[in-house]
Design brief:
By secondary structure, the protein is α+β, with helices and mostly antiparallel strands. It is about 55% helix and about 10% strand. It is extended.
Length: about 300
Amino acid sequence: MFRKTFSDINMFRTFCEIHLPQDLKDKINLDKLKLRKLSGNFIRTQIILNHGEQALKDKQKYQELKEDIADIVYSAELITGGEVLLILHVEHQSKPDRLYPLRNALYDISAVKDYVDQRKSKNLPVPISLLYYHGKPSPYPHTIDIMEMFSNKEIADHRFLKPFLVDLGQFSDQELLSHKEIGGFEISYKHTYDQCISEENVVNLVRALRNCNNIELQRAWYRYTINTWDAEKDSMLNIYKEIIPDGEDFAMTVAEQLKKEGEARGKLQGIKEKANEMAIDMLKDGHPVDFVVKYSKLPKIKVQELKNSYKK
């Protein structure tokens, strides 16, 4: 009944004219309301928040819970440009939920994401939520302002939904070298996507790793770097041995692992090439794609690609 009532644009407009504060009504063009269809992601989020992950595993239960969702989302134009999302929640529970502000924040973010996914808009609409309550006790006994729920409201006001940015590309290696034990990790990540790694970069990395007293992490970081940096592996290992005390045994272990991994990749590549050759021969002999998939063990999409390439 709730959903049917407020899916009527005139009913929703009347509701907004009565219940929205005047300062908002002055900014929103209520003559251009648009009812938005709730996406699967929005509905899924609500079900998880209200009933837990388990509810998604029972298909029949999931369909029943979808029908229970009465939330209504409208978009409306702002008089000064841009849009708002007016999100109307109904609180059907007999007992008010103290954690509703947390659920509401997730609803709002989900609604904005759905809007952007559908419209591919660069500018985000402002979500405005309205909680429609008809339970007991009345007046509503809990805060609906999420800021009131944080243990430190002052910090929350300044930092909630306002992340700090740590852009490693804006630090020189010398600056990262001064970042104590974590400097090696940061230098490694900074150069992950560089197409040309200099010997100086490798030296800086190993010097920074030397500051890490957690040997297990230090070596894990170097293994990661060996596998991700576009640099000559033997040179990297030699620099590690020169700078890190007692690093020779570890470097030899890594070298052996790299050799085995290379051999394994070579064997795997050989197997793939033989499977491709067999599939092409079978296709040339006129065998259908499904037959080739069965005996070559290649994915159907790969066999289709080989067939198209062979025809060309």
